[in-house]
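User: Can you help me understand a structure? I only have the sequence.
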Amino acid sequence: MNLAVAALLVVAAPAWAQTSLGTAAGFGILAGSAVTNSGASVIGGNLGVSPGTAVTGFPPGVVTPPSTIHSADAVAAQAQVDLTTAYDALAATPTLVDLTGTDLGGLTLGPGVYGFSTSAQLTGTLTLDAQGNPDAVFIFKIGSTLTTATGSSVVVINGGSSCNVFWQVGSSATLGTTTTFAGNILALTSITLNTGASLSGRALARNGAVTLAGNAVSVCVPPGPILCPVITLTPTTLPNGAIGTPYSATVTASGGTAPYTYAVSLGSLPPPLALDSATGAITGTPTTVGTYSFAITATDANGCLATQLYSIVIAAAGCPPITLSPLVLPSGVVGIPYNQTVTASGGVAPYTYSLSGALPTGLSLNPATGAITGSPTANGSFSFVITATDANQCPGSQAYTMTISGIVSEGIPTLSAWGLVLLAVLTGVVSVHFLRGRA
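Assistant: Let's start by predicting it. Here is the structure, written out as tokens:
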């Protein structure tokens, strides 16, 4: 891991706004097609399946009273609806640290939102440091599979709770033999707990099966969450600057209860610029050329949060401001060709384009034209920065977040390309509410 990424991992971040699990919070195990058990599994919390009906292996498996089994009934059906809402909300949360290709074993991570464009692997121990905040939230967004090696573990320290750890998995999750795992696993397809694996949290599968083999699953019971409104930060992009020229821009929060406090929750501002915690004003005179990516979090009077990712380019003296368009990239759909071009203006052509962060899996950036092309292969929300450099080596950057909608093929008839597009449009109009507190 390079030093830049390592630095991001130790930045103290506040608790992130959580997604409510709704009625799914009452389930230790929830599956879409079936629940299968072998051995003396003990489940704390309800066990459910919907729309499937099959529950096998209970007994010898036990669901601890007063929790019970719900097979294709109204309770399980509503829990699946709430699970889908929570899954989509987590998928839409901007990734702040990209860990693609990094084994989670041996890492110590603070609160935040971590992303894998494809699979995630845990070999050894992952330590999640709540830094003394009992409401600290850890979100892991995984494009395809989550797998743990035998004897691996997830440990939450310094006042944290496994209730506030979320694993949004784009396909299936597999916990290796005797793994000790913490958090809520929300998988698009299936979840498998191999022999002796234990889970402090929930195993919630939207479409596939949950398979157990002599496991212990315990569900923590958090206090009732506080309903938070949707808080937004404006503007969504900040102007670039130049060495020796005074810089001034203001980030403003709305939608919650004033007064707000503002903080840089990830990365750093260009030196020596400073953020006023009371007004959101960013001021100072830049001294160092570079591209600076960071996140600003606004907290309202009730402790409700909103976070926005930004990028500021500081150019050498004499460089003109270079801007990129469009400011927002359209969403995509898994399996459907994507084609969008980012163009630069304000400098001297020709421009070259470079990428910081990761595009959605399956897409690539043409450094000569700025064209983003390919066919997405994994669903999720992907945050990255594109920088254009003109013929005089003057830079301009724009931060983007692109959402890729996943299409489930297992158990669902194949749709035409136009049908997939229509489905993506329809799902895009569902509003997502965030909750603060423990899930």
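Now, to help you interpret it: The longest helix spans residues 74-92. Residues 336 and 418 are 10 Å apart (CA to CA). Let me know which part you'd like to focus on.
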